């Protein structure tokens, strides 16, 4: 079947929060079991070098909804009134739109990330929602300290080590209050999102009209609570581990607080949770197929970012997104697209960014060249003329070899990075004079201790003092900083990065 826009009626966009790219079989992990996503990858186009540019949760979704980079403009903030979103453009285009999600940061007061969707179904309970259950009695048999390592919480005298210990126990306690009645995998968060998604596809949508469906699952985001934790059984990816399941860990550096063996167990629980997510997401993909929608529906599956998971290549000495460090384990994301009529099974090496996903969706739907204006009835309509993303269709159809020479990533006002075929370079915005210069970022009044730059409550704004350069081929996970030995290359990449950021700010 050849690609034909007229035959593609629908789009299903699936976001899996905090899914690291190399924790999938289709990205080369031969230990983890992800048969449904791997099968999807074989039928879709897999992008080997996809990067999220502005991090974490909220900036990524703003970029995806607007098709515009966020790194030069702003970080963790609401959709602006002058932001044009996918659903703004789809208004009046005979597209029914739906958002089914449990990603609590998207639902923060006045943030507006459900704007423009015809149907919105929020499944409460994840992360920022936990305080809603703070007054719910907790089963006395379920003690927060039994769901993490004692050495992360108590000192040798049996006292709490610090405020991070108390915060960790409080976080676990809130989570247990919500999930203490869980009995089967169907009670998991991802299952709730998937069941409501399948119900919408089968019974709630108007089957005579095309649709755009955004599914946003916060799983496999921590807590690391796969089935083995609730069943009291050994983790299948780490059956010999002895000790409490580590449902959550503190936001402190790993050294002196979390052992390498504990980090291994955390990674095993994370893998098991990803396997659970794979099982349930398979039900969404199966529903699309069994309803006869596969040949008329574009399906995108991706994550917003990865996750630091320990020392070295696993996380540069931290667990969880507790520092604004745009290293490979965080910014490199999985991305797969099924577009009817485009050959499946392709693996694309070219750099792509999350804003390109938005442009591709609009291109497939024939809305990429639309302009803002006024309808015949006097109502404002909106177009995609302000998009900064590039459609990936020419890349997928073999018309071009690449659409970008490099990718960028970072945290607004804190860090920038540039990733090329040969090198990666990290620029830390630690100098206040530079932070406030015209070469840097808009919104210089934002200080580096900005209250909410991530949804990780115990995160701290701590960054190295010196910029970093890495040999991407010999050192893909950025462990050996060669900036001092290669000052000319470092300066070249810094200037290229600043020039690109400056160009984005003028468009």
Total of DSSP H or I helical runs spanning 4+ residues: 12
Domain unit count: 2
- The CATH topology of the largest domain comes to Alkaline Phosphatase, subunit A
How many beta-strand elements?
A: 17
What percent of residues adopt helix (DSSP H or I)?
25-40%
How much strand? 15-25%
CATH class of the largest domain: Alpha Beta
Tell me the radius of gyration: 22 Å
Report on the biggest sheet. 9 strands, mixed
Averaged pLDDT, please? 93
Shape: globular
How would you name the CATH homologous superfamily of the largest domain? Alkaline Phosphatase, subunit A
Helix/strand/pairing category: alpha/beta
Order of helices and strands: EHEHHEEHHEHHEEEHEEEHEEHEEEHEH
Distance between the termini: 38 Å
Spans where pLDDT lies below 50 across 5 or more residues: 435-449
Give the CATH architecture of the largest domain: 3-Layer(aba) Sandwich
Protein name: Arylsulfatase A
Domain Sulfatase N-terminal: 9-366
Pfam family, one: Sulfatase
Organism: Desulfoluna spongiiphila
Label this structure with key terms.
Sulfatase_N; Alkaline Phosphatase, subunit A; Arylsulfatase, C-terminal domain; alpha/beta; nine-stranded mixed β-sheet; four-stranded antiparallel β-sheet
Describe this structure in a few short sentences.
The chain has 507 residues and is of the alpha/beta class. The chain folds into 2 domains: 5-130 and 191-396, Alkaline Phosphatase, subunit A (3-Layer(aba) Sandwich); 407-505, Arylsulfatase, C-terminal domain.
């Amino acid at each position: 079947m050849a690609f034909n826009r007229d035959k593609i009626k629908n789009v299903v966009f699936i976001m899996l929060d905090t899914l690291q790219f190399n924790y999938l079989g289709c990205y080369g992990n031969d230990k983890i079991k992800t048969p449904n996503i791997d099968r999807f990858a074989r039928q879709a186009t897999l992008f080997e070098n996809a990067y999220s540019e502005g991090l974490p949760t909220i900036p990524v979704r703003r970029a995806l909804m607007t098709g515009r980079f966020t790194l030069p403009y702003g970080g963790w903030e609401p959709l602006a009134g002058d932001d044009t979103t996918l659903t703004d453009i789809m208004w009046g285009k005979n597209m029914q739109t739906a958002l089914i999600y449990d990603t609590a940061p998207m639902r923060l007061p006045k943030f507006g990330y459900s704007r423009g969707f015809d149907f919105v179904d929020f499944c409460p309970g994840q992360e920022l929602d936990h305080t809603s259950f703070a007054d719910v009695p907790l089963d006395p048999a379920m003690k927060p300290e039994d769901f993490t390592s004692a050495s992360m919480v108590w000192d040798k005298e049996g006292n709490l080590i610090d405020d991070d210990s108390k915060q960790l126990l409080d976080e676990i306690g809130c989570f247990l209050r919500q999930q203490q009645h869980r009995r089967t995998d169907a009670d998991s968060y991802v299952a709730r999102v998937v069941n409501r998604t399948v119900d919408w596809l089968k019974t709630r949508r108007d089957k005579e009209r095309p649709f755009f469906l955004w599914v946003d699952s916060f799983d496999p985001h921590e807590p690391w609570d796969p089935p083995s934790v609730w069943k009291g059984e050994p983790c299948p990816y780490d059956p010999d581990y002895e000790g409490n399941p580590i449902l959550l860990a503190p936001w402190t550096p790993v050294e002196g607080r979390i052992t390498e063996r504990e980090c291994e167990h955390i990674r095993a629980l994370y893998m098991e949770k990803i396997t659970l997510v794979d099982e349930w997401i398979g039900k969404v993909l199966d529903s699309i197929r069994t309803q006869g929608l596969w040949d008329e529906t574009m399906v995108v599956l991706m994550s917003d970012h990865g996750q630091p998971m320990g020392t070295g290549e696993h996380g540069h000495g931290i667990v969880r997104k507790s520092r604004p460090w745009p290293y490979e384990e965080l910014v490199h994301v999985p991305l797969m697209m099924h577009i009817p009529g485009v050959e499946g099974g392709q693996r694309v090496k070219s750099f792509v960014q999350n804003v390109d996903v938005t442009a591709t969706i609009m291109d497939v739907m024939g809305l990429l060249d639309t302009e803002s204006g006024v309808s015949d009835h006097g109502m404002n309509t909106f177009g995609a003329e302000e998009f900064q993303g590039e459609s990936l269709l020419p890349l997928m159809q073999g018309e071009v070899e690449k659409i970008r020479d490099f990718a960028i990533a970072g945290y607004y006002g804190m860090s920038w990075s540039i990733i090329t075929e040969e090198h990666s370079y990290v620029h830390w915005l630690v100098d206040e004079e530079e932070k406030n210069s015209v070469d840097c970022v808009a919104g210089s009044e934002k200080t580096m201790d900005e209250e909410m730059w991530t949804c990780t409550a115990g995160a701290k704004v701590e960054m190295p003092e010196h910029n970093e350069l890495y040999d991407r081929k010999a050192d893909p996970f950025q462990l050996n900083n060669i900036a001092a030995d290669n000052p000319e290359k470092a300066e070249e990449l810094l200037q290229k990065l600043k020039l690109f950021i400056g160009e984005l700010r003028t468009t």
